[in-house]
Amino acid sequence: MAKKRPQTKAGKTGQAQVTNGEIPVVGAREPCPCGSGRRYKACHGRSAAHAVTELVQRPFEGLPGECDWVALRELVPAATVPLTLKGGLPEGVPSVTLATVLPMAWPALRRDDGSVLLALQNDSTSGDLARDLADTLQRALEAEPGTPVPARRVPAEGPRLQDLLDADAPFVPEVHTGFEFWIPQSADGADPEVAASLERANAAAIPTVRLTGVDSAYWCETPDKNHLRWVMPYPEEKLLDALARLQAAGSTSLGPDTRLVGSFRAHGLVVPVWDLPTSMTAEDCEKPAAEFFERLTGALASDAPLTAEERRARGGLTNRQVTLS
To answer: Using an 8 Å Cβ cutoff, are 222 and 277 in contact?
Structure first.
């Protein structure tokens, strides 16, 4: 289990507060350079994200592991996944790896050995994340070794990830406790800017673990309580009906002092969220999550009209739903 990292506050992060001038771009989950104490994504990065209307509501639809793509985009601080290209790797490119975020918010990096790291948690410019990422990936494959790939406005037409990636390849994220994967083990030392970005990102990372017994469920540790956030592939209305049936029956619990507190939408999918006691580890979640999944499968199979109590439960779930994208 990942250990809890010390919490940092504004004014104590070792970086000067920026009050005038342009705010530098940093990783989405790093502390905002303005000194507010909030993550960049929730502070000055928000205006950049809101400047674009995401026209494609399910950008990762059709990719293997769609739910995990959403989780890595929105929930998981540090993770990597090997990617398999259609037709194989180009000459001189030993591997392509998806990463949640890269130093200085680089969209991608071509390492000295020719391998490629592609960052997922960057803003969309075309309204289609799959097209933006495909454009960045293509440029990374052609970049000079040892260089980052800069951001750019992506043309409205062009290939999408679905056109470039092998749809039959597995998609299994490896969740990390920090961002040390940025720096190859063979490297003598990190660039000072990369090292500073690594320190900021590690300080802001929430310890997160992917469950192994069910798909796309992620435990995370916060100072006051732990959470389970579970990206689900089912149609929203069908899933909310099923959750309402279980909620009315008192069957959404994952154990003592756990509670289904609501859900949020992200990239066309619904993500139910449970509050957990601080003593409940990711390993402790495995069995109750598997048992809940069995109950959910049964509820999803029901076509019976909702009862009055189930409709009230559904209304409560709907009122506590938040849209992230």
So the answer is: no
Q: Which residues pair with 109 in a beta bridge?
A: 117, 148
Helix (H, G, I), strand (E, B) or coil at 49: helix
Rounded distance, CA 212 to CA 210, Å?
6
Dist. CA 138–CA 297, nearest whole Å = 40
Structure tokens at 291: 């048992």
Which residues are CB-neighbours of 132 under 8 A, at least 6 positions away? 122, 124, 125, 126, 154
In angstroms, the CA 319 to CA 258 distance is: 20
Buried b (16+ CB within 10 A) or exposed e, 286-324: bebbeebbeebeebbeeeeebeeebeebbeebeeebeee
pLDDT, tens digit, for every residue of 8-35? 333 333 344 444 455 666 666 678 888 8
Tens digits of residue pLDDT in 224-275:
899 999 999 999 999 999 999 999 999 999 999 999 999 999 999 999 999 9
- Provide the 8-state DSSP code for 2: P
Q: Count the helix, strand and coil residues of the chain and give each as a percent rounded to the nearest 5.
A: 30, 20, 50
Provide φ and ψ at 134, rounded to 5°: -65, -40
